[in-house]
Amino acid sequence: MTSTVPETQPTTPDPLDLEAVDALEFWVGNALQAAHFYRTAWGFDLIAYAGPETGVRDKASYVLQQGKLRIVVTSSLREGTEISRHVARHGDGVKDIALRVADAAAAYEEAVRRGAVPDKAPHEEKDDNGVIRKASIAAYGETVHTFVERRDYSGVHAPGYEPRSTVADPLPPVGLLDFDHSVANVELNRMNMWVEFYEKVLGFSLIQGFTDEDISTEYSALMSKVVSDGEGRIKFPINEPAPGKKKSQVDEYLDFYNGPGLQHMAINTDDIISSVEALTARGIEFMRVPDTYYEDLKDRFADLDLDIERLRKHGILADRDDEGYLLQIFSRMNQDRPTVFFELIERHGSRGFGNGNFKALFIALEREQERRGNL
Ligand code: FE2
Known about the structure:
This protein is an alpha+beta fold. It has two domains: 20-163, Roll (2,3-Dihydroxybiphenyl 1,2-Dioxygenase, domain 1), CATH 3.10.180.10; 176-372, 2,3-Dihydroxybiphenyl 1,2-Dioxygenase, domain 1, CATH 3.10.180. It has nine helices and 17 strands. The chain has helices at residues 31-41, 82-90, 104-113, 191-202, 249-257, 272-281, 292-300, 308-314, 358-371, and strands spanning 20-27, 45-50, 59-66, 69-76, 93-100, 118-127, 130-138, 144-149, 162-163, 176-185, 205-210, 221-228, 235-242, 261-269, 317-321, 324-330, 341-348. The chain has a nine-stranded mixed sheet. An eight-stranded mixed sheet has the order 11-12-13-10-14-17-16-15, sandwiched between helices. Strand 3 (59-66) and strand 4 form a beta hairpin. Fe (ii) ion binds at residues 181, 183, 264, 266, 343, 353. Fe (ii) ion (FE2) binds next to strand 10 and strand 14.
C-alpha cells in the first residue's frame, strides 16, 4: 500500500531570504553638507567616509548610523557622471535601498531568473578587512536594490571607506532605532505592476491595500498597497495617484522627482515624544494637522491612557486597529524639492501605517502643496 503522506523534502534556503535593509544611499548635490544635516539635525553619527583621501577619485560618500539604521550620502566630484546626471534630474534622492543577504550572487541570479532587470552583475570589493560581495537589480524609476553580502567582511562599512568618528554631540540624543518602512511613489496605473514585482521577484506578500475611497480629501486622492517580506521586517508601501479635482501629492512628487522614487522612510523610535522634542531642538520641522484632529482622537482613544494634550503639543498623530496602536509624525521635506521626507513611528502592537490619519494628514499636505503653488 502506498503512503499518501508526502516525503519530507530537504528544504534549501531561499537565496532571496532578506536579512535586513543594509543601508539607504542618497545621491545628493553636496554630500559634505547633507552629512552635516543628517548628523546635526537628525542626530545620526558619522561612522565612515570615502573620497579622494581614501583613493576614490570621482565621488565623496559619508556613512551615517543611528541605532541599526544606516544611510549613505554620496555626491559626484565631476560633471557628466551617473551621480551628477541623477542629481540634476531628480534632485537629492534615494538611489539604492540595499538589502542584506547571505549570498549576493545567488540572490541576484534568482531575482533575475524571476524577472528582475539586472543593474550591476555580482562583483567583489576587497580590502584588509575582507571582502564584500554585491549585485544590484533595478526597482521603480531609477531606484535600485543592491544585494549586500557582509559575512566575510569585518570593516566598518565597505572597502574604500575609512572609519570616521563624530565629535561628541552636545545635543540630547534623538533615539531613532531602526528602519520601519519606505514608501515608493509610482505613476498612475503602475502600482499593481510594482506590487507584482515585489511578490514575484522578492517573494513579498501583499499585506494591506487602500483605495482612493480610503485616502482622499475633497481635492485629491491616492491609492496605496503594502508589500512585506515573510518576516514582516521589510515593508514597502507603494502609492499611485488617483484622479481628483486637483493635483495629488503623488503627482507633485512625480513632477518634481521626474518620475517614480522613494517618497519617505519611516524610522522606529520607542519614545516618539522625546524624539520629536530632540529633533525640534535641532531645527527639524514637522507637518501639523489641525487642532480639531485631537478632539476626535480623545474619543477614539477614550479607553487608553494616552496623554492626548502632549501629543497635540508636539503634533504627533495616533491610530489604532485590532492589534494595538501606533504614534507617528511626518517631517517637512529634507530638501528644497517637494520629494523626500522622514516619518517617525512608535508601535504598540499595531502593524498598520496610520490609515486612520491619512485624511487629516493629506489635508495638511495639501495646505503645504498650496503654499508651493502646486495644488
Ligand atoms: Fe509611512
